[in-house]
Design brief:
The complex is a heterodimer. Chain A is an alpha+beta fold. Chain A is built from 4 helices and 13 strands. In chain A, a hairpin with a 2-residue loop joins strand 1 and strand 2. Chain B starts with a helix and ends with a helix. The chains are: A alpha+beta, B alpha+beta. At the A-B interface, loops of A face helix 5 and helix 11 of B.
């Protein structure tokens, strides 16, 4: 993937890529036994932060950008919505420069421990049934959440009001009706 | 409102501008053709490297002929080209002859088929930092929508530049830059690539609004829409398993732009500050 230590350093150090489908913060590039390797940090639930040293050609490394979406800020309460930007900046992985937080949402620092933990949870998000998310006022998937005000948010935008078995979708967002039908186990009522 | 007026760019002839980045054992740094110039590119490595840039936009046949000249010259020069993942071919599609509506119909079509197009361009182009797809960097859709709604599309720049479909070249050159093709001078590859881009640009003029593109896709279904929109290129790009899912994903991403952008801002033109009316003129009226 990268021929020289300086190139690998330029494109990877200080950014997050995936190892075994889990975010890994690349701390630096080193030569191990004549081969280029990276030293990184991963957060694994129940185990905490773990150091990794992996050869750059390791099959389990994935340099392709990974999806983000809704996450929880380090305060443990506030949610944020984050997406990768295609900004002109020479890092293959995720950094503070190529991440965008929508509409004044709290930011997390990619290079900090709490940031890596938050980004890991965000990237590994699993689906939650709507009725459970409604009760808990939490995420349905990486693009949808039910807020404390019983609003359904899509990518940071309030698009509907929620009841236990029905979602009242604002007419402007009626293009999302099919998407909601696929992701919400309740009735979708489009408001005109 | 047309593109040249909106971005204050002169209408130019020729459909394609091409930049070909190459790595090889050795490469010429000057070439005996009036059509090409040679530049350096900081992202390239290899034993030797260079970027060959068309001096002015050319129509498809002329562009292919210019690439053929370059290919033959490189052969005579003895360059052995390395198919490195670092190299790419950027194609600028001239938009100065289009309306803003047709420009965004074209952009909508490109996002719908983006993953199919990049798949064809090669494995090393998927998720490549220099040509991120909307699925890799979805914030590009939000950024474009924000620029439109703030009536500031003419200021779009570096924060979307490393996208497969790069809008930052619109205010600069009046072109839409497609960055995902690997570095190549192969005639067959470029014939297909320029062909599909020309085809999609052409059919973008058959829709009256970006919402009509999505509307037709909903009406026809993904596969029939792909057949109609890609025409003779359907068999090349819509092959293999999971293509429908990829088109659906592209459509879902671009929908947020198509349905949330305040299109009047770009289709009716930027608001002009009214010229002052002098007292004498008022009396004359």
């Amino acid at each position: 993937m990268y021929d020289t230590k300086s190139d690998a350093d330029r494109y990877l150090s200080g950014s997050i890529i995936l190892l075994n489908k889990r975010p890994l913060y690349v701390e630096d590039i080193r030569v191990v036994g004549g081969d280029l390797s990276l030293k990184g940090l991963q957060f694994v639930k129940g185990k905490g932060f773990m150091n990794r040293i992996v050869g750059l050609d390791e099959e389990d490394l994935d340099y392709t950008p990974f999806p983000l979406g809704y996450g929880v800020a380090p305060d443990g309460v506030t949610t944020f919505y984050a997406e990768r930007l295609s900004i002109r900046a020479w890092k293959q992985g995720l950094t503070d420069k190529n991440i965008q937080y929508l509409r004044g949402h709290l930011r997390v620092s990619v290079g900090s421990l709490v940031g890596l933990k938050a980004i890991t949870a965000c990237a590994m998000r699993k689906k939650t049934p709507y009725k459970v998310a409604f009760k808990k006022r939490s995420f349905i998937n990486r693009y949808l959440q039910v807020t404390r005000e019983e609003l359904l948010e899509y990518k940071g935008r309030p698009i509907a009001s929620c009841e236990e078995n029905v979602v009242h979708l604002i007419g402007k967002y009626s293009y999302l009706e099919k998407y909601l039908e696929e992701n919400i186990d309740g009735r979708i009522n489009v408001l005109q | 409102m047309d593109v040249s007026t909106y971005f204050n760019k002169k209408k130019v002839n020729g459909l394609f501008g091409i930049e070909i980045e190459l790595e090889a054992d050795h490469l010429p740094k000057s070439i005996p053709f009036a059509t090409w110039r040679v530049e350096e590119d900081g992202s390239l490595r290899g034993e030797d490297n260079a970027e060959y840039v068309l001096k002015k936009p050319l129509d498809r046949e002329e562009a292919l002929s210019a690439v053929s000249d370059l290919r033959e010259f490189l052969k005579r020069y003895g360059s052995v080209i390395d198919l490195s993942r670092r190299t790419s071919t950027h194609v600028h599609v001239n938009m100065t002859d289009m309306s803003m509506v047709h420009l965004f119909n074209f952009i909508t079509l490109l996002y719908i088929f983006e993953e199919l197009l990049v798949d064809w361009c090669g494995d090393a182009r998927k998720g490549n930092l220099f040509c991120l797809r909307a699925k890799d960097a979805p914030a590009v859709i939000d950024k474009i929508t924000q620029y439109i709604n703030a009536d500031a599309l003419h200021m779009i720049g570096d924060n979307v530049r490393y996208s497969t479909v790069n809008l930052a070249s619109l205010p600069k050159y009046g072109s839409l830059e497609i960055r995902c093709l690997r570095g190549t001078v192969d005639d067959k590859v470029l014939t297909t690539w320029l062909g599909v881009l020309e085809h999609l640009k052409k059919i973008s003029t058959t829709y009256d609004h970006p919402t009509s593109v999505i509307g037709e896709l909903s009406e026809l279904g993904i596969q029939n829409f792909a057949k109609k929109a890609l025409g003779k290129f359907y068999r090349i790009f819509y092959t293999g398993v999971g293509k429908g899912k990829k088109v659906l994903e592209g459509t879902r991403l671009v929908q947020d732009l198509v349905f949330l952008a305040d299109w009047d801002k770009v289709f009716m033109g930027r608001e002009e500050i009214p010229a002052p009316v002098w007292f004498d003129e008022e009396e004359d009226q």
